[in-house]
């Protein structure tokens, strides 16, 4: 059965229809400058097909939330949900065939892009039994599939571009029909635009955009001027779901409305109003009110009190001869020229050496083998026995040295050490730093401190480390799209309380 909806009238007054079933199979690209009527076109398309097919709207400006007032759409305010909640909502949207509007207008630009990408990926990854047909409308698609890198991070750009590519290139087999709208074709990634077989081109003025639009519509370059002369709300349509030849269409009326301000003139305030007084009233008091403070983990001087206990809990093996470690030539020369090892000073022990190493700038970024060799040299120079410390034990002791557990009381340190016994060596230091922040009552450790103890300056690596800890059940991460991250440690509730 073929189902058609009317989106408007052509120049002769005849209805222009869209074949919904064909649209599901062939996708749609809408282009038009700001003010050309692009959002109005999308609204007309959504309203006319609302009772025929499931609809998912990615709405960066909050323009389509009014659909819920007239139809059965559910508005999802992304600012009120974490990343995992957004993914779970997307899975439920596919399962229950609900029409939704993902409102992103309360988020910063990068958070909007990441949220939309995670939502689209979750739609795409739904189980096969939930592959029902759905129209997925992405307004301002040049944000989510940019042709070139912008001010957002590279990780976010790649995530979003991958999600949009999956929607347009592979979404059809999963029942997802992409409808993307953009202000400029030149800003939209070509591999996303190229997958659409239907086009509705509105007014645009730049030569490069007119040329690309004319190419997509099969028009000669000299006819591209026609696109510049289009009135607001007028589009040129082409494609198997619209028309086999380019057709001019004036978009029809809609029932719901956007929240954007109108373009008409409004009367100015009356001359009798004291605008200067209104603008300056209590201005100093408002400016003097400080913003709410954001809790951050304090930075305390390093100490190795906890390491002394860790060493005491592990009895050393029988004494062995000092191992002959392969050392770099520079270190061998330094040892040969060094004076005889001095008598150990009071307090010169393994925790002190480890604390000294951990306090050095960039220590956590050095390879483990280099650190262990440096540790062995320092122990020899100071006459501190270290034969019972192998590489594996050194790695864990160094992690304790970097985590600064001296800020905790004895009971809290013992509890943290007990929990750390089941943590892998390569993520032990950041885990301990998270535990310290949790015991002290902070919602999350300082991000710079977490990166330092982990030995990485890459936000992506830190994020993957946290995901790994969460998969292991060691921490629970909750991050909203406003940028606030909360990390809790199961098993520390009674200590933190």
TrEMBL record:
This is DUF87 domain-containing protein. PANTHER family: HELICASE MJ1565-RELATED. Pfam families: DUF87. InterPro entries: AAA+_ATPase, ATPase_Atu1862_pred, HerA-like, HerA_central, P-loop_NTPase. It comes from Alteraurantiacibacter buctensis. SUPFAM superfamilies: P-loop containing nucleoside triphosphate hydrolases (SSF52540). Residues 24-257 form the AAA+ ATPase domain.
